[in-house]
Amino acid sequence: MTKLKIGLFGCGNMGSALALAIGNTFPEIEFFLYTPSQFKAIDLAKKINAKALSTLNEMPRDLNWYIIAFKPQSLEDFNFNFHEKAKLLSVLAGVKISKLQEHFKIKKIARLMPNTPSSIGLGANLLYMDSAFHSDEENELREILKASGKIFKMGSQKDLDLTTAFSGSGPALVFELARIFEEELTIMTQGRVPARDIIAQTFLGSAHLMQSENSFLDLRNQVTSKKGVTHEALKVLVDNDLQGLFNSAFSAAYKRTLELSE
Ligand SMILES: NC(=O)c1ccc[n+]([C@@H]2O[C@H](COP(=O)([O-])OP(=O)(O)OC[C@H]3O[C@@H](n4cnc5c(N)ncnc54)[C@H](OP(=O)(O)O)[C@@H]3O)[C@@H](O)[C@H]2O)c1
After folding, report:
1. CATH no. for 170-260
2. Is the pLDDT of residue 1 over 70?
3. What residues have CB less than 8 Å from 221, skipping those under 6 apart?
4. Relative to the CA of 37, which ligand 1 atom is closest?
5. Domain extent listing, the chain
6. How much of the chain, in percent, has pLDDT values that exceed 70?
7. Which fold has domain 5-156?
8. How far apart are CA 154 and CA 214, in angstroms?
């Protein structure tokens, strides 16, 4: 990786996760970090090859890439005079490229939907970039982003927005399931077994098996013998329409994505 320079606006959870993954994999990349309260930028700058800026005006206008990683609601208050040829990557959930182009008066804007495993190089990163970018620019960005996990290129912004609830929010849904497993196990055993470790290992092992060629249904069926223990558990979930519940959850998340994009 050549000596690229990246400007990051917003050093919260996602901005820091991305910068850490990229910065640790490619120490030759230099970051310029800006965040209004400064503290998070100063902290992050201690961990990677980066300079924490005190004011927005200190952000250079000739960097290779810029990343915006604040909440979509902060966009209206954020103004930076990008060079007209600047290349910008937005992680703002739901915010369309056309809105960003209008706001920043630049053309080259790509969208990325990372997730929290991106911080450890295991992210499912959704990427959308249109024809404003040359193929060498796309390759460069993909190379940088590989540091944070797998890249899934989306054919449309609609697909990126639809998939966000599954990959971007997905880890929270998985953690919620793990939390429920842990709590139920703790209650049923009255705390006699190491519930957290048992559940974490169960999810870890299952995630590894999911990397095999087998369908998720096959994997499920391998654990489910007729009239067996797992069968009873699954029956309760099916009878109570667990899939319908998830359908409502994903639909609600997509609705919120659309609201944020207005
Ligand atoms: N969290 C996730 O799993 C996830 C997944 C995919 C996408 N995203 C997207 O990532 C974005 C950030 O989410 P997050 O969870 O990282 O939020 P967060 O932890 O609240 O971080 C937001 C950051 O934005 C900074 N900020 C606020 N106003 C700003 C401004 N005017 N200019 C520059 N920076 C500003 C904040 O600065 P201070 O620290 O100074 O307050 C903070 O560092 C969102 O758009 C979200 O849609 C998040």
Report:
1. 1.10.3730
2. no
3. none
4. 40
5. 5-156, 170-260
6. 100
7. Rossmann fold (3.40.50)
8. 24
